[in-house]
Amino acid sequence: MIPLRRIPLSADAEKLLTKWTGRVSTEGGTSKTARELWRNAHTPKRRVRDALEPMARGNVRCMYCDDSRATDIDHFQPIEKAPLRTFDWANHLLACSYCNSNAKRELYPVDHSGTCLLIDPTAEDPADHLMLLLLSGEYVPVKNSPKGQQTIEVFGLNRRELVKGRLDAFDRACSNIRDWHLLVQDSDAHADRVARALLDSPFIDVVHAMTRLKPTVAPKVVGPRTVAALDAWRSAHGF
Ligand SMILES: [Zn+2]
After folding, report:
1. For the chain, what is the largest distance between any 2 Cα atoms, rounded to a whole number of angstroms?
2. Quick one: 21 and 87 in the same domain?
3. Å from CA of 63 to ligand 1 middle
4. How far does the centroid of ligand 1 lie from the alpha carbon of residue 56, in Å?
C-alpha cells in the first residue's frame, strides 16, 4: 500500500453526487435505500470511476493490495455503516474484487473513540503505520500500530499469493533497476521504456519500499550490485 493523491472532483461531478446524496436522505437515509440507489446510479458511478482511475498507480491497480487490476469502487466507510456517504467522493477508492468483496466487505474497525483503524491511502501515508519487509514479502505494523495491524488483517495484506508476488516483484525490480541504470549510463533512450514498464507493473509498493530504504540498510537488502542503480533510480523516480 502506497500513498495516493486524491484529485479534486470536477464541479459538475461534485454537484451530481450531492444531488444523489439528497435522494438518499429524502428517501429515508437507510443503507437499504442507499444500496439500491447506488446500484442504479450509472452516471455517478461512471464519473467516480473516471476520476479514480488516474489516481491509481500502474495499470489501474487495486489501491489496497497493489496487485490485481482495480475493478470495484469501494466505499471506504461501508454503505451499511454510513449510507449518507454513499455518494461522498472522499469515501470512494478503487479496489480489486478480492480486497473489496472477500477481504474488506463491510468491515470498518474503530478504536474506543470511534476513529477508523484502517488506512486510507488517499488520506494518509501508509508508511506511518505499515512497513514492507522486502526480504520476506510481508507487511508488519510500525511500532505495533493498531491501525497497521488492523489494515493487514482486514485487507489480508499477508495472504500467501501477495507475499509470493512481492518476493518475485522484488527480484524483478532489482534486475530492472540495474538494467535501467546501465541504459541511462549509455544515454540509451530505451531506459525510459524500462522505467515505465517497472512503474506500471503490479506490486509498485515493492519499488516504493526500495526507494525508501535507509542508505545504511540498502546494501544489505538489495545487495551491493544494485545499490548504485537504486540511488540513481531514487533521484530520477523517487516517490
Ligand atoms: Zn486488492
Report:
1. 66
2. yes
3. 7
4. 12
